[in-house]
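Worked Example 4.2. Consider the chain below.
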Amino acid sequence: MSLHRRVSSRGRSVVAALACIFFAGCALLHRTREPEIPPYVEATFARKPFQTYTIPTPAPGTIPAESVIGTVGTYRVRQGDTFMDVARYFDLGFNEIVEANPGIDPWIPPVGTQLVLPTAWVLPCCTYDGLVLNIPEMRLYYYRPGPGGTTTVITHPVGLGRDDRRTPRGPFTVRGKTVNPTWIIPASIRQEHIKERGDARTSIRGGAEDNPLGKYRLELSIAPYSIHGTDIPWGIGMLVSHGCARLYPEDIARLFPLVPVGTPGQFVYQPVKIGMRGGASWLEADEDIYKYRPPLVPRAVATLRRSGVAADGAQLRAAIGTSHGVPVKLKPG
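Applying the procedure from the previous section yields the following structure tokens:
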């Protein structure tokens, strides 16, 4: 994905058409008042609004009756805005806001442009307990029991391993938690640092401004990987780490006290997700960032079959082509 997308009339038309389709017929989207947001500085991000969602607790191995959370919104660009600032305030990754707004310059978006905020998600199938991190969408979900047969869901964007140091797939448990962790630099990474910038340090003390672990770290049973903060928030929604999952500083500060040691988790790889909302089926397609799987349409067909949903190939191709990381409603098969 290019980080320097230029504005084009075609791109603006795509966004306009996408918005028209969404606003005309999808219950997930609605026009909202332009929020009153202070200037984008660290204090603003520290006070940004957070959401918690609730779903009916499903039987093991099944999809909840309601498995699409959130509502897509809009945002009108102000002078000096960048996609990075807007994404962080609305708790999105850079990948999510770029994908939902194709053709718009992420660094100098035209003032007054109405952006799609892709703040709705189909939940990954089919684990709804503990931590679930879906690698292709670069997003983490945290599930814990709620009242009266419900499950609460918290979700945050993440930065993940670059292509030569991919974030692994598979189950894990949280084996420890550390505030202001010291980073013991692995030998292979230290050699990179020496070659790239002449930095021969073997560790970076906890609390240091350039400590890439940030203030909080959740240690995982699949060492040396962990879920932690960052000293470079712009990397959320990008493939920038050595395999760990990075969160915005304010997101890990929220998540850290909620997750007890022993919490189960899983790194999954689901570029295509199918969910239910209001009795209808919804599809969300994200970029196959590590190119692990077959083409998206056969994958979507397999996902639908597991979910007990019927849809033909033409409909799936259309839904995948218009999803842009945003849930799209499927017609009954």
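The domain at 9-122 is CATH 3.10.350.10 (Membrane-bound Lytic Murein Transglycosylase D; Chain A). The chain has three domains: 9-122, 149-268, 274-329. Compare this with Example 4.1 before moving on.
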